[in-house]
Design a protein that fits this description.
InterPro entries: Aldolase_TIM (IPR013785), ThiamineP_synth_sf (IPR036206), ThiamineP_synth_TenI (IPR022998). With 202 residues, this protein is of the alpha/beta class. The chain has one domain (6-201): Aldolase class I (TIM Barrel). It has helices spanning 12-15, 19-28, 43-57, 105-114, 138-149, 169-174, 184-188, 193-201, and strands at residues 6-11, 33-37, 63-67, 81-84, 97-102, 118-121, 157-161, 179-182. The protein has an eight-stranded parallel barrel, surrounded by five helices. The longest helix is centred in the first third of the chain and has 15 residues, at 43-57.
Length: 202
């Protein structure tokens, strides 16, 4: 399964009803994989956002990944793609695409053992959006977790997350990340996707 090297994380609680317009501009700038984070919103609101983002991504062959809801609702997202929180159980039956948030070696090892397609590893750099997860991993910590994920082939793809600026992309790739996952910068300035894609192509 081929995934783009850029994951755009669309946080509905932060963006509110501006979310579809933000994602539309990000997609026009080249984003092709969007993780909809709307776990704490009512099911009907989450479904409304998911439908809107699907309409935006479909014409360009993009993929919407639904961050697994916390309300006991259906884990499978549109297109059968789901992103799991660190401690969420692996869903049965297995969705077509499964990612998981990871912060430690044990969490990466677990995701690899259960057959996740990708993991986000965070926080790589200082960021206000990832409180409570200890000090940033830095490039060296990222390299260690990326190596662990790739120890058994095929292992999950590793996306660097947390404080990743366009300038930091080459450093993340050199540390072994497959790509980067970004939330805040894209929510604030969707066209910054172009800068991330330039770094990922370099």
């Amino acid at each position: 399964m081929t995934l783009p090297r850029l994951l755009t994380i669309a946080d509905a609680a932060t963006a509110g009803d501006r979310l579809p317009a933000i994602v539309a501009e990000a997609v026009r700038s080249g984003a092709r994989a969007v993780v909809l984070r709307a776990r704490d919103l009512p099911r009907d609101t989450r479904d409304r956002y998911a439908a809107a983002l699907c309409r935006i991504l479909e014409p360009v062959g993009g993929r919407l990944i639904l961050a697994g809801p916390q309300d006991g609702g259906e884990l499978h997202g549109p297109g059968d793609a789901v992103h799991l929180a660190t401690r969420q159980p692996f869903p049965t039956p297995r969705p077509a695409l499964v990612g998981r948030s990871c912060h430690t070696a044990d969490e990466v090892a677990r995701a690899a053992a259960e057959g996740c397609d990708y993991v986000t590893v965070s926080p790589v750099y200082p960021t206000l959006s990832k409180p409570g997860y200890g000090p940033p991993l830095g490039p060296a910590g990222l390299a260690g977790l990326a190596a662990l994920a790739g120890r058994d082939r095929p292992g999950p793809l590793v996306y660097a997350l947390g404080g990743v600026t366009p300038a930091a992309v080459p450093e993340c790739l050199a540390a072994g990340a497959y790509g980067v996952a970004v939330m805040g910068p894209v929510l604030r300035t969707p066209r910054i996707v172009l800068d991330y894609l330039e770094g990922l192509a370099g």
